[in-house]
Amino acid sequence: MSPESDRSSSLLPAPSRRTILAGAAWSVPAIAAASIAPVAAAASNVPVLAFDKTTYTGTACSTITGTYLTATVGGVPTAGISVTVALSGSYTFTGGSTSYTGVTDSAGKVSLPAITVPATGGAATASATAASATTVTASVTAPVPSTGGAYFYDWYSGSNSKLANVPAGSTPVGQEAFLTNNGDLWVSNVRVATGVSAAVAQPYFDPNGGNVWHNYVTYVSSSGAYFYDGNGGGNSKQSNVPAGSKPVGQITFLAPNGDLYLNNSRLASNVTSAVAQPYYDYNWHTLISYTTASGAYVYDWYNGSTGTQTNVPGGSTAVGYASFLAQNGDLYVGNKKVASGVTAAVAQPYFDPNGGNVWHNYVAYTTSAGAFTYDGNGGGGGKQTNVPVGSTPVGQWSFLAPNGDLYLNNSKLTSNVTGAVVQPYYDYHWHTYITYSTVVPC
User: Fold this and answer.
1) Cα 1 to the chain's mean position, in Å?
2) 166 Cβ partners below 8 Å, 6+ apart?
């Protein structure tokens, strides 16, 4: 029987003085540290730094001017203190640098150069530090621009479709699925949920349900965990999944305490990472690769079997079907070490009807030397020589370069891409689906 039928207040320690380039605006530890820093600093006669604002707001492709910070010692503005300010989130100072160092004047002030807002807008952090001083931060933000768009590309047919209803600046989360900054979830150009904090969408071909395709979306919001079926619009709450869990793939969630839930039932405990993926080989599978502190495992929902990957070191991270990245950069596929010095990887199962009805585990990965692909069936693959160093693997044979160029099978597919998710899919043909977003550059 198909499993588908079963779905239904002591003083805080002093923080580091190292400049922190954080993507998020404010963090609780940073706020807490800032709130107690004047007391500790006054007692030790060290500088106390402060931005003139807690938040700087601009618009995409413009500049933020007039920003400054002050340094005081014992509450008195102090001259001659060298202060360094660093920016995150693609924001830069005039001239293109992400950091600026200045010396306080007689009023204890350092005026900062204009801050250039990137084409993508969004949230970032300005972090300031000086010798002996506690690092302080301010948020930098700009609305996501309305230029650009959301797209869906099918490698098999070569078609490229714009999803006109999806707001520009949305983040792709899987096949034809996007999540906006305000938490709206869009699937196949239709808004299907609001208040969503995270989502994973995956294509699946169902031979037992009329040979139709589904776009399964697993997502969470403040009200709980949910599962949405793009074929028919089914939307059901996973009532047993704890609040604060994160979606890790098809009907699968990882709770904050390490419990792993599949189809509303707890599958495993003490889990540190997991990736769940649909897979079709004339049967119905959901394949879950997961790790604990002691080992790595692969679970097949179709037959209920769990395999231990005995060669994979404890503490590794699941990166896809039967694939794990060890802390030292070794990449394991099917319990075999296939590469070293790996910085990132994405592994995906694929059933090939045109090549002898066999399964493949396609892995896209990067090292300091460049971008590579690997085929778990036969070990084929190699270096993607046209892909720039520093690119990010985003799925089957696909990489996103730092400048926004998207590469598929060693060729540039498009430019100005801000995010992409690439997935294999079988419906008696051979597809690679690429869901991506763009923004018009400044």
Assistant:
1) 35
2) 149, 150, 178, 180, 186, 189
Which CATH code is given to the segment(s) 28-142? Answer: 2.60.40.10
Question: For the chain, first and last CA: distance in Å?
Answer: 55
Between CA 306 and CA 287 the distance in angstroms is 10
Residue corresponding to tokens 């100072």: 93
Pairing label, strands 136-142, 55-57: parallel
Q: If you write DSSP's letter for every residue of 242-294 in order, what string do you get? A: PTT-EEEETTEEE-TTS-EEETTEEEESSEEEEEEEEEESSSEEEEEEEEESS
Amino acid making up residue 241: V
Cβ neighbour number for residue 73 with a 10 Å cutoff: 18
* φ/ψ of residue 117, rounded to 5: -90, 130
Contacts within 8 Å (CB) and 24+ apart, 6-11 = 6/263, 7/227, 7/236, 7/251, 7/263, 8/236, 8/264, 11/36, 11/40
166: burial class by Cβ within 10 Å (0-12, 13-18, 19+)? buried
Sign of torsion over alpha carbons 166, 172, 177, 180: negative
Question: In the numeric block, which tokens belong to residue 331?
Answer: 């990449």
Helices (H), 205-275: none
Span 10-47, pLDDT tens digits: 333 443 433 332 333 323 333 333 333 344 444 468 89
* Residue 409 contacts residue 397 (beta carbons within 8 Å): yes
Cβ contact 137:20 at 8 Å = yes
Sorted by where each begins, the domain ranges of the chain are: 28-142, 146-438
- Torsion (CA) 268, 269, 270, 276 in degrees, nearest 10: 30
DSSP per-residue codes, 391-409: -EEEETTEEE-TTS-EEET
Q: What is the pTM (predicted TM-score) of this model?
A: 0.74
Rounded CA separation 72/442 (Å): 38
> The dihedral of CA 383, 387, 388, 393: what is its sign?
negative
CATH number of 146-438: 2.130.10, 2.30.110, 2.60.40, 3.40.50? 2.130.10
Q: What are φ and ψ of residue 220, in 5° steps?
A: -130, 150
What's the pLDDT tens digit per position in 129-174?
A: 999 999 999 999 998 777 789 999 988 888 899 999 998 889 999 9
Task: Report which secondary-structure segment, H or E, holds 364.
Answer: strand 358-367
